[in-house]
DNA sequence: GATCGGGTTTGGATCGATCCAGAAGGGGCC
DNA sequence: GGCCCCTTCTGGATCGATCCAAACCCGATC
């Protein structure tokens, strides 16, 4: 394979190839490949010579060629869930950040794709079969969750952020945050501050995540011998719903504190308090969930359960590495504990 | 090239190749390739036959092979800027969403990479030289902006979201939002509501973006013959700074309304109002910038300038397509006008 | 009937890396 | 010295698509 018609390798317009480096260093192509991927195989002086040539030419391996040969892309697919305006959900953003950062350390990049449209599986299939990505990270494992089932059937490698709710025979790796532990912390925190009538505003009963978070609240209250009756409300995840629910609860159940399944709902509570001239933290305590930007900047600061998304990302990437290294890898689940960020609202 | 040792093509574990499709359809490889990429070149019946074979085998072109041959990856690189906790910046999230969505329509995917660490150019170089991405979208073109300069020198294709501030001979395509027009709208809106003493809280003077937004405020006031003296404050982009600045302005300049360079600063104003028992919207009007989630969920709703990020993404992708289609493409700039979302705070 | 031209179709070469089997090189051991 | 072994290095084949130049087909033209 002669390169006679090619511009000299010093010319920056054409990227140098492995063959160029080999010629420069006076070794074969395979030796250069080894210098890059298995330096241990080379004798010290040869390695030094090859590395010098690599630096001189500014050689960087061509990904497409490598991907073709190794049948791997070193890309992780992540589907962007549809935007929800009017909610305070910043969790996704933080998670993506952590994931990108952690993946980089493991030699992977994150490929975003859009899953909007009627079919949530749209996109997964193409990316998988065109070998565009090595694996997926699946984030919204709410009830039913078609992606996980579908991916499992295709024997596609993936790790889920979120438990396989209601699917006990699911055998894929997943990482999740113990929501119940979070709301239990929040409730205990309020009990320690002297509150006894602590209300819950959560999501509709068909949300596994919502019921999990609710369980933490009721567990904490019952453990200390306090009642939960009449103190719970289950609504949609909107500010408006939180506002309505808190208004009703204030009128009918006389709570001195609220624990909410999301910062969005907690903001609804703050609306009600503002309308009634009540001061959050002083008159009524409020705790949210997610530690979103909203919780951080609102007056007087919203106490909120913070998910350890950095750790989630680390665990996800670790699972991913295991999964890709061992095709027969049996999925494991990992549950991480959130922390409570206390601010002015409690 | 015989495939005798291979499992039958019906076996789903091995992805069918173009050669398999060709054999099935009784045509050559090139014909299949044309059926996929240039259907016009085929006679009707041949095309139908090939397409049938493609469907039967479930053929999807292998990206790595295509990328290698065409020297293109159909990936767009986007660097994630470092997270800023405690600010209300949701703009990035919305933009990424729109970009992913728009790119998909143009046949591109978005590759995220992390730019944390001392060198902001870290990552760009590797991705570019390893032909991992075809182009970049550069987002933070604040002052100086080393990426743009560096990328231009490398003749790397990129489109910037943000003007090349203070660099008049920059000849790359960019898309930006007319911040001054946004704050001018906001100020005019307040003037129309009867306010005359309208204060400004913005960023430090070395921020081009901040000065641009400030210009809109002062222009609107001067056009209607109102004074700006003593009514402007320039601080860091934090809630705390906004709180301090608004407290000082209230004491010394007696404004009835605030226009802010960001929702973060506007939240600071809301803090001050809450502390003084003043009601936003009723006693003092407040306008923010970015229409973040915070603005949407806070009580009683924060009026805010909303950037048309969907349109920005569309324009960015369009520029990118031109750029990649015509290597000699001369960069153009495009300035889009934001809108004002009016809520309870004004 | 042979030639021409166009739209179609073909097979070989190629992109740049890695896999693989085998060939040098250099000691150690009998 | 000869043999064997282990480390180090080599060159051909390969991954799966596209580029390219040439061959094919078939009706229109002379």
Textual characterization of the structure:
- Two copies of one chain form a homodimer.
- Chain A is α/β, with parallel strands linked by helices and 346 residues long.
- The first copy, chain A, has three domains: 44 residues, Orthogonal Bundle (434 Repressor (Amino-terminal Domain)), CATH 1.10.260; 132 residues, Rossmann fold, CATH 3.40.50.2300; 128 residues, Response regulator (Rossmann fold), CATH 3.40.50.
- Chain A is 43% helix and 16% strand.
- Chain A contains 13 helices and twelve strands.
- A six-stranded parallel β-sheet of chain A has the order 2-1-3-4-5-11, with helices on both faces. In chain A, strands 7-6-8-9-10-12 form a six-stranded mixed β-sheet, sandwiched between helices.
- In chain A, helix 5 packs across helix 13.
- The radius of gyration of chain A is 26 Å and the shape is elongated.
- The N terminus of chain A is likely disordered.
- Strand 2 of chain A pairs antiparallel with strand 2 of chain B.
- The structure holds a DNA duplex (30 and 30 nucleotides).
């Amino acid at each position: 394979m002669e390169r006679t018609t090619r511009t000299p390798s010093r010319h920056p317009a054409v990227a140098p190839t492995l063959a160029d480096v080999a010629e420069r260093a006076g070794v074969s192509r395979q030796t250069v490949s080894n210098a890059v991927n298995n330096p241990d195989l080379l004798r010290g002086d040869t390695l030094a010579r090859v590395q010098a040539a690599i630096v001189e030419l500014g050689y960087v391996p061509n990904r497409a060629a490598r991907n073709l040969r190794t049948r791997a892309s070193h890309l992780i697919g992540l589907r962007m869930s549809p935007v929800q305006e009017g909610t305070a959900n910043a969790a996704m953003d933080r998670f993506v950040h952590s994931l990108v950062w952690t993946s980089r350390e493991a030699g992977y990049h994150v490929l975003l794709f859009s899953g909007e449209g009627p079919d949530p599986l749209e996109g997964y299939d193409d990316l998988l079969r065109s070998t565009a990505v090595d694996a997926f990270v699946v984030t919204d494992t709410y009830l039913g969750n078609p992606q996980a089932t579908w991916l499992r059937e295709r024997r596609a490698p993936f790790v889920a952020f979120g438990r396989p709710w209601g699917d006990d025979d699911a055998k894929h790796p997943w990482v999740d945050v113990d929501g119940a532990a979070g709301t239990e912390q929040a409730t205990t925190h309020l009990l320690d501050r002297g509150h006894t009538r602590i209300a819950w505003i959560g999501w509709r009963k068909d949300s596994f995540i919502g019921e999990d978070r609710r369980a933490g609240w009721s567990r904490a209250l019952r453990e200390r011998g306090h009642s939960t009756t009449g103190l719970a409300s289950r609504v949609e995840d909107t500010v408006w719903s939180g506002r309505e629910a808190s208004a009703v609860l204030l009128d009918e159940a006389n709570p001195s504190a609220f624990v909410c399944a999301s910062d969005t709902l907690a903001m609804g509570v703050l609306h009600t308090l503002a309308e009634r001239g009540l001061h959050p933290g002083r008159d009524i305590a409020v705790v949210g969930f997610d530690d979103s930007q909203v919780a951080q900047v609102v007056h007087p600061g919203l106490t909120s359960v913070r998910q350890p998304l950095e750790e989630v990302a680390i665990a996800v990437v670790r699972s991913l590495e295991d999964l890709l290294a061992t095709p027969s890898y049996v999925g494991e689940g990992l549950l991480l504990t959130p922390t409570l960020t206390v601010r002015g609202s409690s």
